[in-house]
Request: fold
Amino acid sequence: MTTGLEVRDLTMTFSGVDALAQVSFSIGEGVWLGLIGPNGSGKSTMLNVLSGLYRPRAGSVVMNGHDLQAVRARHRIRQGLSRTFQHPQLAASLTILENVMVGAAHRPTAEAPSPPASDSGAEWLRRLGCDEYAEHLPSEAPYGVQKLAEVARALMSAPSLLLLDEPAAGLSARERVDLVAALKEIRRHRPTLTLCLVEHDVGLVASLCSELAVLSAGRLIANGPTQTVLADEAVKVAYLGTRSTHDATP
Ligand SMILES: Nc1ncnc2c1ncn2[C@@H]1O[C@H](COP(=O)(O)OP(=O)(O)OP(=O)(O)O)[C@@H](O)[C@H]1O
Reply:
């Protein structure tokens, strides 16, 4: 059985226009892949297809050897696929810690029903540097903490594949530094976690991901080791809109 994620010939069409056109790539188990591309290139559409919110017109998504086509969005989490959203979707009436604990209710059946103490909600909040807000409501916490709380909630479901949709969007420079530290902490504690990171901050992506996949107008224009992809002429053109001596490398 192949572990990790395999995306084969995915096509997603809105009103006759391909938001994704025959996109194929794979992410090996434990690999962190950055999915980048200009505005409107199809990154969020890809995450929505992977998480089952959108049904593709063609193609398949295979995770750890299982074809997810017939698996509904809400059941994919029990198969080990978890995600965050660009704008954190936390329950307003629950504390940050209570929100994080909600993730434990969606652990895969193969996992212990309740996480070990070393993987408790409080422990993840501490690792991600936001434990001081554990008992606060989301509205009382900084935006960066709300975004990290959503990541912690996703981790509580014990995913083998985590999809992060623009975790740095809306964060201050300081919060971005904290985010990178928090994500590195996740890698330290979950070395087998496979991660797909959608993000506009290419420097941040390059500091975390060993591989990149680049979308442009719904097509995959590059995929491979981070530094190789960033040196690719087609990638520079997609980002800068012109062939030039400027460097897309952060
Ligand atoms: N629900 C939808 N209905 C119609 N068109 C859509 C829908 N979602 C996305 N699109 C279109 O699909 C294309 C890809 O959009 P998508 O949001 O996936 O791009 P993106 O790379 O995530 O962009 P951004 O970086 O700005 O978030 C765009 O042309 C967009 O207008």
